[in-house]
């Protein structure tokens, strides 16, 4: 069996590539969030916490998502460095803005909850993957997942999945059972995308 070794000198992403990746990743995530919100669904992680807070208080999702991420930046700075933290803060801000902008340009009407949840899960998962590949995260639990993978070599998707499960269980009292089931399917696909595409030692950019 042929073993392909990584190059000895790994060429890092250029600044413009990182900037473009943050925009693309945040756009994909915010689009998935918009679809979930359209069906009154929920996601995992701090996005899920933001959804539940929004449903309870009727505050804007973007503002809630940005604010509840703030405490996690301390861990990011202490354990993962300033570059990671700045990129993550930028990504979270872009997701917050994007989730507020989509309704101004696109109106969705008759959506199949299951289809919307599946599409949302894949979109958010791919968005998070783009951010991970460029040294950033979606904030919150994503920071914990990135830290666990970096420090303990535990796959980020598995860590994210465990935390997502806690949030989904907490949603039982606020979300319609069918919508919650659809949301769980989307969350499983989200974490599957990350788990099979983002492993330690698999990416060298």
TrEMBL record:
Membrane topology reported for the UniProt record: Multi-pass membrane protein
Record flagged with keyword Secreted: no
A Pfam family that the UniProt record links to this protein: YitT_membrane
GO cellular component terms, A-Z: plasma membrane
Localization: Cell membrane
InterPro entries xrefs: UPF0750_membrane, YitT
Keyword terms: Cell membrane, Membrane, Transmembrane, Transmembrane helix
Full protein name: YitT family protein
